Amino acid sequence: MNGGTPFAARLERARLAMSVAGVDALLISLGADLPWLTGYSAMPLERLTMLVVPAAAGGQATLVVPELEAPRVVPIPEVFSLRPWSETEDPVEIVASLVRKETGPSPALAVGDQTWARFVLGLQAALPSATWRPACSVTGPLRAVKDAAEIEALARAAASADKVAAALLGGEIPLAGRTEREVSAEISRHLLEEGHEHVNFAIVASGPNAASPHHEASDRRIGKGEPVVCDFGGSLSGYCSDTTRTVFTGPPPAELAHIYEVVAGAQAAGVEAAQLGRPCSEVDRAARTVIEDAGYGRYFVHRTGHGIGLEEHEDPYMVAGNDEPLAAGHVFSVEPGIYVPGKWGVRIEDIVAATAAGPEPLNKSSRALTVVPS
Ligand code: ZN
Ligand code: ZN
Ligand code: ZN
Q1: Among 19, 90, 163, 270, whose Cα sits 20 to 30 Å from the Cα of 156?
Q2: 272 CA to middle of ligand 2, Å?
């Protein structure tokens, strides 16, 4: 890499993975694979954008793009050539003819997971002897291992989210007496002020709503002495943040304080288990065991974590059954919770990077039980 972009090296890794998997061409449209390979994000339009990457060494990667979108593409001639198509051309036929030119008579094709069905069906009709599989089978394991620049970008996003968490824990974002929706809007505003370019979500779940892990902020007014689960994230320089802190608007009853300590213990155990070479499922098992041993196993209703990068949720997943060994460069959430329906809930979430020196939490805001000043 001549000190320039990471894209040529990524394309090389993709080509290698394609040849191992027996894929003749990669067809990438919407979603994060495209910016990962080219730096360009396609808008979710009805017009087709598609990167065609032949596996053959010396084959030319081509970005087929609507002519009116072409000015947004930053060309990287050593990585891909540009094929803008005009309003009267058929982009599916352009892609099909590139595939015919670069591959054999019955090519194995890997198509981007978020390609509109319309275009996939059109391509299948135009290339009747091709076989198809999802592009994530090639790109997923590659994108899961972050390079140094990506880990730095994720750490920057996490540090920015941590400033919002600090504002929350310090009582700068008032809770009691306001609606969840108002607090969610204020958390979103803080994320932008701290440098995020997009807010992806800002869950605020108070009192009994805290028992719903993906609760949508509502008009419920937050009371005193309640748990408030705040789970928020956005993207900064394209890379995502995602952190959860559960705070209290008054001293919690003893049982709730106990639940908080159990979740905090489970979260720490999950992080500690994230040692290189151990299966991803171990992170889930370590966190879950703490919660099960405390008698709350049936109230921990989701996996312990997900990979994060250009997307909020991507490979690798910290879930029972995922035996993939943790590798240096895997970055993922550790976010156990206990959700007692109709009553209350607690979740604590940090993003963690697996490194040779051990697990490194990128989120560093306090995990201690915090009663926010009001
Ligand atoms: Zn989620
Ligand atoms: Zn989250
Ligand atoms: Zn998460």
Answers
A1: 270
A2: 19
